[in-house]
Amino acid sequence: MNRNLLCDFFHLNLPADMEQCVELFAIFGGYTEPIDTDEPLESLIRRHILEPFESHRKYLLSALHDDPLYLNLLHAIAVGDRREGSAFRRARIGKERGNEAFEFLRSSGYLTLERSREMPLMRVHPKQRFKKEIEHHRISHKFRFASPFLRFWFAFVEPFSKSIREENTHFFYEHFHTHFNAFVGFTFEELCDLYIREILAPKFGSDILDSGSYWNREVEIDLLTETMEGETWVGECKWTNHKVNKKEFHKLEEKCTKLSLIPDKIFLFSKRGFSNELNDMKEKRLYRFYAEDLSLLTNRS
């Protein structure tokens, strides 16, 4: 995530608070026209996306020539777990063709690559064999969209292009209301990772070696940061309408145990805060952050 993208969005539109900022940024991040943040969300989408649908589509898809290969892959990435293998399967294309499509979409400015930090299998001797599911596992990188606006378009708008052209937006809004909150969760995760890089690392006097999500065959952690000083930080991000409780902390601990990892710092990021039980925990490694804390990223004066 590019901090300038968030700063430009924030200062162009001046959302009321960071909760509103994150939600709107998940849709309009990278969209260069100002929006009225006092308008209801449905109205903003209608005015800025659905009504100028044809002009947006012409601009966004001009390089793709309506090729189903690219459209299907972009949709698969926008709605899936972003892993190479699952995106290719969802788009019903093979690995070789999928890699060629990705290279075109990367060079055309649609996608970037987030590389996996999973280590290859270590065999004690060359003939060592593991269980079938382990042997068949392949390390998979993840794809990222160049901007939130592109991701929103291919997750919510492009799949309903036919009905939108017919001025029937019912199916679009039905899908939007069902899936939008979960969709915002990834944007929140990206911004939390940016917060670790840009705000927390300088605060702790640390230099970042690597930071981002971590995944392997068994475990997925929202945020795993390695510092030049040899520390490991882990974090989870919860974009839900209920408070994060102690159970989420223990789930993260269990994930670390599976990785034989003892983190030096543990970060929990929450949209709506934390339970009293979690707030009362006496754990020196634990740091709790609210959505509003991300306002430091906006260079708000």
Radius of gyration from CA coordinates: 21 Å
Overall structural domain count: 2
How far apart lie the N and C ends?
22 Å
- CATH fold label of the largest domain: Arc Repressor Mutant, subunit A
Strand order of the largest sheet: 3-4-5-6-7
CATH classification, class level of the largest domain: Mainly Alpha
Which stretches are poorly predicted, pLDDT < 50 over at least 5 residues?
none
Overall spatial form: globular
The arrangement of helices and strands along the chain is HHHHHHHEHEHHHEEEHEHE
CATH architectural grouping of the largest domain: Orthogonal Bundle
Protein model, in words:
This protein has 301 residues and is an alpha/beta fold. The protein has two domains: 27-183, Arc Repressor Mutant, subunit A; 188-298, Trna Endonuclease, Chain: A, domain 1 (3-Layer(aba) Sandwich), CATH 3.40.1350. 48% of the residues lie in helices and 14% in strands. It is built from 13 helices and seven strands. The chain has helices at 3-13, 18-28, 41-50, 53-60, 68-79, 84-91, 95-107, 132-135, 148-157, 161-165, 170-203, 246-258, 276-279; strands at residues 111-114, 142-145, 208-215, 220-227, 232-238, 265-270, 286-290. A five-stranded mixed beta sheet has the order 3-4-5-6-7, with helices on both faces. A two-stranded antiparallel ribbon has the order 1-2. Strand 3 and strand 4 (220-227) form a beta hairpin. The longest helix is centred in the middle third of the chain and has 34 residues, at 170-203. The protein is globular, with a radius of gyration of 21 Å.
